[in-house]
Every structure is written in C-alpha cells, then in structure tokens.
Amino acid sequence: MIVCITEKPSVAKDIAAILGAKDRRDGYFEGNGYKITWTFGHLCTLKEPHDYTERWKMWSLGALPMIPPKFGIKLIDDKGIEKQFHVIESLIKEADEVINCGDAGQEGELIQRWVMQKADCKKPVRRLWISSLTDESIREGFQQLRPQSDFDSLYYAGLSRAIGDWILGMNATRLFTLMYAQNRNVLSIGRVQTPTLALVVDRQKEIDYFVPEDYWDLRTLYKNVTFNATKGKYKSEEEALEVVDRIKEKPFFIDSITVKKGHESSPKLFDLTSLQVEANKKYGFSADETLKLIQSLYEKKFTTYPRVDTRYLSEDIYPKVPNILKALTPYSAFVEPVLAKKIAKTKKIFDNSKITDHHAIIPTNVSPSATLTLNEKRIYDMVARRFISVFYPDCEFYQTVVNGHVEDVEFKATGKRIVKDGWRAIYNNAQDKESDNEENIMPEFVEGESGEHTVESVKKTTQPPKFYTEGSLLRAMETAGKSIEDDELREAMKENGIGRPSTRAAIIETLLKRKYISKEKKNLKATSAGIALIDTIKVEMLKSAKLTGIWENKLRKIERKEYEAKDFINELKTQIEQIVFEVLSDNSGNKITIVEETEKKSKTSEPKAKRKPAIRKLEQIICPICGKGHLVKGKTAYGCSEFRTGCTFREFFTDIPEDATPSQVNKKIQDKYKK
Q1: Is 305 a catalytic residue?
Q2: For residues 305 and 383, what is the distance between their CA atoms, to the nearest angstrom?
Q3: Angle of the 545-559 helix axis to the 193-208 helix axis, nearest 10
Q4: 225-229 and 214-222 as β-strands: parallel, antiparallel, unpaired?
Q5: Helix (H, G, I), strand (E, B) or coil at 9
Q6: Is the pLDDT of residue 599 over 50?
Q7: What is this structure's pTM?
Q8: What is the pLDDT of residues 320-347, one digit of tens each?
Q9: Distance between CA atoms of 305 and 312, rounded to whole angstroms?
Q10: Strand pairing of 2-6 and 23-25?
Q11: Which is catalytic among the residues 305, 380, 468, 563?
C-alpha cells in the first residue's frame, strides 16, 4: 500500500481522483492501492526554549545565548493538528512506500519532512514535483517520481533558515527586551524583520530631516514644442529672470535633429515579487493579498506554482506553449497571431540556467472560469497578458532629439513616436494599461532654422524621497536595499535579497501587526516605536539589509550544495554570542517603550507577568568589576551573576540598602566605581 501526503485537503482530493482512491475516510482517501492524506501546512515547529530546559523558561540575561546542543521539533499545540498527525502516523506504519506530495518548494519540503520525522518514517520515500495542479501535470508527475534524497539540499536549506531564525529571533528578542524595554513590552527582533524595518525607518528619517530648496528652470516654447534649458538649476529667481530678459527678444535657432529607431522588448514573465509589485501599483493590493489571490488561482488549476523567484521558463515548457495559448479563450484575438507562425525558442524566455525550484508564473492549459472573483480575474488577467506578450514582437519607435540655442543658452526637446505597437497592442485596450502609451510627435524641424519663441522661468522645489509602498519595499528587499530599475541587474541581485519571495509579504504584515510601521493609503511609514527600536539596536548585523542578504546568499548556496548547512548554523551561533556580549557591555541605560502588540502573546514568548520588575531591572545593571555579568540580589548583598567564574564583586546591604530601588542601586554603583 502506498501513502501519499499532500499539504492541503483540496490537493489530496485532486490526487485521489486521478489515482482512483475514491473512498473517503476520516483524514484520508483510499482506493486502488493508495491512501492519500494531508497536512494543514505546518503541523510541526521547532521546540521552544522551555522545551529544552526549565532554566530557559524564565527570561534571564544570564541564560543568554540559548543554543540547544541539538535542535528538535514538536507538534503544534492544536487538537485538530494532533488528530490529523495521528492519522498520518498510523498510515505511515502500514505503508510499503510513502510519496511526498507537498508543495514543490523549500517550505513545502520542510513541512513534509518534519511530519515524517515526527512520525518516525522508516519507509522508502519518493517525491512528487510539479509546477501546476492540473490533471495533466499531476499524471506526468506521478510518472516521473523522484527519490526524496534528490531534494535533501532543499530540506537542509529550509532547516538552516528555520534554525537561523530561531537562534537570532529567540536570543535577540529576549536580549533587547530585558536590556531596553519598559513596562514588560516585548521588543521583537528577527533575521529578516529587523533589517526590513530598518529600511523603512531610514527612509522615514530621510523624509523627516529633508530640507526643501527652491530652484528655477528655464524653458521656451518654439513651434508648440517645449524646449528645456540644459544648463540645469538656477539658485535664485533673480538669476533666472536675468537670463529670460536677456534672451526673450533674441531668435531661437535649431542646431541639430537626431532621429533614432528604437526597440522595446516586452516585460519579462512574472515571478512572485514582480507580480506583487505590479498588483500594488495597479490596484493597491497588499503583498499578502496578491499572494493569497495567486495561490487561490494555483489551487483552482488556472495558474502555475506562485512562490517562485525566477522570470524564465524551463525548456521543457516550450512544446506545451501552444496548448496553453489555446486555452486562453478570452484573449483569442491576441493569441491567434502568435499561433499563426512558429513560436521562437529564445533565451529571453526559455533558459534552464535561470531556473531554481520552478519556472515563472504562467497560465495553465485550463481555461479561466467565470466563477473567479473580481480580484482573482484581475490577477489572472495580469498573468495571462504578460504570458501572451512575451511571444509578440518588440515595440518599434522613433526617438527624436532636437537641440537649439538662444545666444549662449542651450535648449533640448525630445519626442517619441511609436511606429509598430508590437507587444504593446495587448495592453492598448486593457483597462489597466501596462504603461503610458501617449506619443509626443514632433513637427518638422530643419537645422539652422530660427524664429520667435516664448521663454519663461519656472519655480520648482526639491522633493524628499518617496515613502515606501509595499511594492517598492518588496523591490528593496529583493535587492538588499539598493535602488535598481534595470531588470537584468535586479535579476543578478536576487541572490543577495533579504527574505524569500514567499515570506516577504508575511514580514511586512508582521511589522504592521506589531505597530512598528503603519500604512497611510499606499505609503508605509515608520512609527515612533519602530524608530525607537532601530535607534536602540547598535549591532549593525541585526539591521543591515546587506549582511542579511549575505546570509540569504549562503542559504541559496546550501540548496545548490555549494555550502554546508552546519557551517551556516555555526556562523550564526558565533554571531549571536558576539551580539550578546556587545549588548551586555552597553552601559547607556537607554530604555524604550514599544506599543503593545495586537496579537495574543504565548506564555513563553514574553517575560512572566508575575516576575518582579525590580529583579528584571537589576539584570540591566552591568557588573562594574568584570563587565560581563549583571547584578543579582542575594540574602545579604548585591553580587555579580558571574560569581561562579571568579568575579569578586560584592556590595553588602550595609552599603546599599536592601530596599533600594534599581535606579538607586545603579546610582550608588556608578558613583562608587567611577572614582
């Protein structure tokens, strides 16, 4: 008997229908020698600190850093999850073979492997690896099942990511909370979350501290064409008007006319990030909303796997393109010209070297259903038009540059005239045009001609940087904070981006939920709490998008078997030890208050409410003798938490009263040991 484990009940139902497992049981389908069961996404998670030792149950600076000798997993505490896990566990015991049918990606691999580990699976395991959930794709996938060992490096990368997030998140959150937070509020620190917040905070400060400056430009109107002065900005209106008065009665001369024929290729296919960026720009959809919509289209079989970071297709998709195009019945007028001739197999579209787990997001050969919601239709339309457009010819245009002068002042005007729409024809009648298609058609000019003109000075003001939107923040995360417009260069930067395409939306949602950032219309703004948190973090590696991008690069190398998972984990262990030492050495005494999180906190995710604030605040006073430990209160004296390693610091209650407040204790210590 073969057991198939999918990630969702809906996928289990589809696979069961194809494999002939028609009988519905409690937690699985059965029939034709198969039993098909499912998870609900994550059933297991890494153990929490208190699961390893009682000592880590209470938040204490002396317990940091917390690094288990071996990381373990546990079932998520939920009765529904426990019930389904026991179904999976019992089926695995009966099985002759197991087929991992989880989502074909890093997170999907991690979900399924943890469940099988927890169920102590000793049976042979094969992997179903598909890019869409159409019946055809599922049948092909079962004909090409692969050994699970082929995906070990994918699992190790996912495991390293999870452990890395645990090491930094658990330790840094406790460390900064105990050192700097007031009112027992939790200062949430994360490997990707914190550098993302730092991007928003840095942009907020650039805007807040921006000082606008007025300047003046010159422009003149000749033959109903606006020419702009090439000199640049004039710092004062007087300076600009002086030039206007000097040249306004003088003739305008045409110096040169340059006409160049240009070509513009269609935009590349969508990966998840570029789809989220476009949907945010066109419809104001949040990154999370777009992810849910494209995930729904995938589960309904209309589009391919969405959590991808490539904008290319694998070469094996090429023979399937005609059938996919034929299925796009609402777009038949655009599809017919493509099918009328042989489709070119170009590296701009088909390139195996650019494929990681999956190819770009495209439609499937299942025609879109009328039952789609309005927003699902919008996302599907974006994916479908983009797919058709890459098989269209380039847009052709003429770019005209006209240079002129009045006395010693030079002017320039540019115009663009489209002569062949090419791929742009697919968007010309669309409600949501891909880009502005207005033309600036120039009249006929002749070199040496001259005539009257109307010149004026125009007052302008320098503008601050724009606030991040979800779209531009996703781009910044993709390129580790660098502003890059060029598609090719941005593609190369993905190796060092922060977060994964599938997790970036969740990171933004977390920052919003924890009130570190807020959203005003489309703009993302840093709150006072978010700014205070970033200002408090002096450890650059925790908030640097560049350094986090280097970590992400190593995780990708683990996937490609170019880097060892154990080396990545050991590096993070060393780094958290350095971070703890550095923060405990901070004697600034700065405290910040963070707005309460709106989400419910678990018992082990914050300091216990019953814990005495005075004790916690004593832990924030660094030992003046060794500089490593913190103050603790004994039966007869104040001492150092490092007394076991030989620190001799003692201050008896005869010198500092037992009932002194933490601030009084700190003052007496500072006064005495400064001398």
Answers
A1: yes
A2: 12
A3: 150
A4: antiparallel
A5: helix
A6: no
A7: 0.79
A8: 999 999 999 999 999 999 999 999 999 9
A9: 13
A10: unpaired
A11: 305
